[in-house]
Amino acid sequence: MKIKTAFGRSIGVALAWLAAVGPAFPQSAPRAVEQAEALRLADAWLESIAAYQNIPAISAGVVADERLVWARGYGTLDAAHKVAATPRTIYSICSISKLFTSVAVMQLYEAGKVRLDEPVTTYLPWAKLTSAEADSGPITLRAVLSHSGGLPRDADLPYWTAPDFTFPTQAQLRGAVGAQASAGPASRYYRYSNLGLTLVGETVEAVSGQAYGDYMQGQVLGPLGLADTRTSMPTALQGVRLAVGYGARKRDGSRDRLAAFDARAITPAAGYTSTVEDLARFAAWQLRLLRTGSAEVLKASTLREMQRVQFVDPASKRTRGLGFAISTRGGQTFVGHEGNCPGHQSVLSLEPASGRAVIVMNNASESPEPWAEGIFALLDKRKGFEFEGALPAVDLEAYAGRYSEQPYAAESVMVPWAGGLAYVVLPSSAPAAELQLLKPKGGDVFRRVRDDGSEADEFRFVRDASGKVVRFIYEGNPVARLPPVAGGRP
Question: Number of structural domains, the chain?
């Protein structure tokens, strides 16, 4: 059907924008328009985060319908700041490594080669820590996978210390573990442990009879088609595809450049590298198994068990599955993991009920978890929204873009939204909560819409002699339009 109205043109622009910045999307689906408009705002928001927080590189992507529907890169990945970050940029994914290690041990569980409620020492006799409490039960695989085994966070070695980040060899790790004491009783409290998932990786190696990396490549990464996910840091690609890592911002706003590290014996817990595109494939595989109930690398029932709550901390009420972090927001359950390593941060978050996943990665010290939550929130905000009453035919693209909010705020952005506009002041920590919806009234006039649907303040846009929108007037005060930023973003 030919699109004739100005609103119809905005729909076509939204779909064309999504096709230009991400993988192909079904053009006729109303859901595609909703996602395109929400992700256009997410795009502008993430770009502002990179700019205002001085983060060298960010890469992000969204999975829906079991495929990557949108992906973007922001900033540059190299020390000279010339190579653009993309969805194919490689980052350390640190603790997201734990998910792959957990998949591997659950394969062995399916094969009847390990039992989850068996003590870890059944498979690793050398991994016997001194008990911190007399009445502690055994440290089982299930407890280790759910971070309730009472293990120390790490082996008693300084591998997280700058500037060298010297991780232990396998022999050093085993020697250190034998001299350590547990941090508390098993199966009583949540205590996050890199050491624990490292021991899971050691179990994979001991039970399979293969080197950990060989097993992972042959039984997990290869079969999942994850050609850009590695059990090591590809240092030869640093500054080309592997993002250079940076530390936290100092008082003068600068960041120290960090050397690439080799996680060595801690690889099962923190040594992997990957890309947005590969983590999207990993997420799509999980969503596909959950939908179809089929067996592919793992049985669907096994994956469901991994993503089911296995332990609830009696104090914090934090919940964990087998390898997976589990949380609830707005009545919905999210599963996945966050990664935090020197110079790299990442998050993979899945919402199984909606069949969606969000991946965000960066090469600095800021946690991307709030950004992933913000993207989910924007998608939910747009989903099913409609303005009340008939709307005039308006070319919304004429108003879309950035506007100066100086000196009281930095800037704002306007993007098409369900036949009207979404207006957000940037920088923002929660754009879905802070956005204002503007309903067109005709003649370059919009009105802000309250949560109950009633109309409030007027926004009147002004055009120059050529007909281009150059500012808007709000409560008598003009707000000037800004030029687009690099990459064609508003």
Answer: 2
Q: In angstroms, rounded to a whole number, what is the distance separating the alpha carbons of residues 274 and 368?
A: 15
Strand partners, 344: 341
Bridge partners of 181, per DSSP, are: 130
pTM passes above 0.85: yes
State the helix-helix crossing angle for 97-110 and 194-208, rounded to 10 degrees. 40
Instruction: Dig out the tokens for 440 from the structure.
Output: 């067109």
Q: Which of 326, 359, 392 is the last residue of a domain?
A: 359
Any domain includes 75: no
Q: Between vectors from CA 347 to CA 170 and to CA 335, what angle results, nearest 5°?
A: 95
pLDDT single digits (tens) 109-148: 999 999 999 999 999 999 998 876 766 788 999 999 999 9
- Given this model, what pLDDT does residue 356 score? 98
Q: Residue 99: which domain range?
A: 91-359
- Please indicate, yes or no, whether residues 333 and 406 belong to a single structural domain of this protein: no
Cα–Cα distance, 461 to 363 (Å, whole number): 39
Name the strand (E) or helix (H) holding 10.
Answer: helix 6-21
pLDDT tens per residue, range 454-481: 999 999 999 999 999 999 999 999 999 9
Q: Helix, strand or coil for residue 306? A: helix
Strands 436-442 and 445-449: antiparallel
Does 11 share its domain with 106?
no
Judge whether 203 and 141 are in contact, CB under 8 Å.
Answer: yes
**At 130, which CATH number?**
3.40.710.10
Do residues 205 and 265 both lie within one domain?
yes
Instruction: Find tokens 């999210």 and name the residue.
Output: 334
Q: What is the pLDDT of residues 306-357, one digit of tens each?
A: 999 999 999 999 999 999 999 999 999 999 999 999 999 999 999 999 999 9
Residue 327 β-bridge partners: 334
Q: For the chain, give the percent of residues with pLDDT over 70.
A: 92
